[in-house]
Design brief:
The complex is a heterodimer of chains A (144) and B (263). Chain A is of the alpha+beta class and 144 residues long. Chain A is 29% helix and 15% strand. Chain A contains three helices and four strands, in the order αααββββ. In chain A, a hairpin with a 2-residue loop joins strand 2 and strand 3. The longest helix of chain A is centred in the first third of the chain and has 19 residues. In chain B, strand 3 and strand 4 form a beta hairpin. Chain B is α/β, with parallel strands linked by helices. Chain B is built from twelve helices and eight strands. Helix content of chain B is 41%, strand content 16%. Chain B has an eight-stranded mixed β-sheet with strand order 3-4-2-5-1-6-7-8, with helices on both faces. The radius of gyration of chain B is 19 Å and the shape is globular. Chain B has a single domain, classed as P-loop containing nucleotide triphosphate hydrolases (Rossmann fold, 3-Layer(aba) Sandwich), CATH 3.40.50. In chain B, helix 1 crosses helix 11 and helix 5 packs parallel to helix 6. Classes of the chains: A alpha+beta (144), B alpha/beta (263). At the A-B interface, helix 2 of A face helix 7 and helix 9 of B.
């Protein structure tokens, strides 16, 4: 009877659950089986980020975490210093989209940040996001 | 001309590798192909039993490898199908009793005499699996529509793909009524998750137990539905384009839902 009602209400059977669980577990399996891929990803990530800020390559940490129905990649990339914003004449917007305002504007002069703003050395590890691209007044704070 | 060398594998045990090997081999033989089946499951041999040839074993795979007999002395001809023969595994030895090169050499020798050499791979991904795969140039992965079987199949697919060998999939023991009620993964789901080309769909069928009890390949039962299904698989294997049987006879609910959606 319960089964009857469930179907009448259009609820999914256990096969949908099975598929979802399989997808996740296979993704995890594939990642575990490909440590060299993760290394490559790390390296390339650092390359991109290093165009804008100086990062501590020794202390980069990449991990994967299951979140409900998805797998999330978490990258912790400590920043050592931030380049002058004016010096990024290379690309219009080769950075990640979530830029709130003025993403389209070519580097506003007002946003000039003192070079090497975020204290040399031990800036606490920061989630890889582009938060610190804002006129970092203080050393990039830990945001997680 | 050398034979096609195909390994039948799955990762997980008990999903139907041996049954698939036996029935596919018998079906190909019925179609006039010359076939040698090799049981690579050293220590746990069963292909002979499934085919009803267990009483006729004289020599085995390991003895051939060690040079104690010739391949043709160890081959057991199936009397029901003239062109079918099996090379039994050793029962009292271990997987390590044979080296990959030795195994490959035996497969090579067998391949020179027939159209198909089909290798029944042991479960797992260790020595026995590596030997069996090394001897083949293409693979058939067997899986049931269950999570553990699919996960293991995925692992095996990864390993075979790394060796650059083509892979095709048989979804075994499908229960169509459970699929239509949403309680079993469908063939589409399985193919989706594994991303491997489909070779065949075999529904769960009591005939398998019955024929195995008797040691008779399913291909002997012309009237049975499984016989037709294995015939299709054999034809696909030979490159024919054969449409897949759809088993989704929808139940009342499925039809009702469908009608509601359509309306």
């Amino acid at each position: 009877m319960i089964e009857f009602l469930r179907r009448l209400l259009g609820q999914r059977g256990s096969s949908a659950t099975a598929k979802e669980r399989l997808r996740l577990v296979l993704m995890t399996d594939h990642l575990e089986l490909a440590p060299e891929m993760i290394e490559t990803m790390k390296r390339e990530l650092v390359e991109v980020i290093s165009r804008h800020v100086e990062v501590d390559r020794e202390r980069i940490d990449v991990s994967f975490e299951r979140q409900d129905s998805a797998l999330a990649m978490l990258a912790n990339i400590p920043i050592l210093s931030v380049n002058r914003p004016s010096s990024n004449g290379n690309g219009k917007r080769d950075e990640i989209p979530p830029a709130p305002r003025d993403a389209a504007k070519p580097a506003s002069p007002k946003r000039r940040t003192p070079a090497k703003a975020s204290a040399e050395g031990q800036a606490p590890p920061t989630r890889r996001r582009r938060r610190r691209k804002k006129p970092a007044p203080a050393p990039a704070p830990a945001t997680n | 001309m050398s034979a096609r060398r195909i390994v039948v594998t799955s990762g997980k045990g008990g999903v139907g590798k041996t049954t698939t090997t036996a029935n596919l081999g018998a079906t190909l033989a019925k179609r006039g192909r010359r076939v040698i089946l090799i049981d690579a499951d050293i220590g746990l041999r069963n292909l002979d039993l499934v085919l009803g040839l267990e009483k006729r074993i004289v020599f085995d795979l390991v003895e051939v490898a060690e040079g104690r007999c010739h391949l043709r002395q160890a081959l057991i001809k199936d009397k029901r199908f003239e062109s079918l023969a099996i090379l039994p595994a050793a029962q009292t030895r271990e997987k390590e009793a044979i080296a990959p090169e030795q195994f490959a050499a035996i497969v090579e020798e067998a391949a020179a005499q027939v159209d198909y050499v089909i290798i029944d791979c042991p479960a797992g991904i260790e020595t026995g699996f590596r030997n069996a795969v090394a001897g083949a140039e293409e693979a058939i992965v067997v899986t049931t529509p269950e999570v553990s079987s699919i996960r293991d199949a995925d692992r095996v697919v990864g390993k075979i793909a790394a060796a650059n060998k083509p892979i095709r999939l048989i979804v075994n023991r499908l229960r169509p009524e459970m699929v239509s009620s949403g309680e079993m993964l469908s063939v589409d789901d399985v193919c989706d998750v594994l991303a491997v080309e489909l070779l065949g769909i075999v529904p769960e069928d009591e005939d398998v137990i019955d024929t195995t009890n008797r040691g008779e390949p399913i291909a002997l039962r012309d009237a049975g539905r499984l016989s037709a299904i294995y015939d299709k698989i054999a034809r696909r294997l030979e490159g024919e384009l054969v449409p897949f049987t759809t088993f989704d006879r929808q139940g009342l609910f499925g039809r009702l839902k469908g009608a509601l959606k359509a309306g």
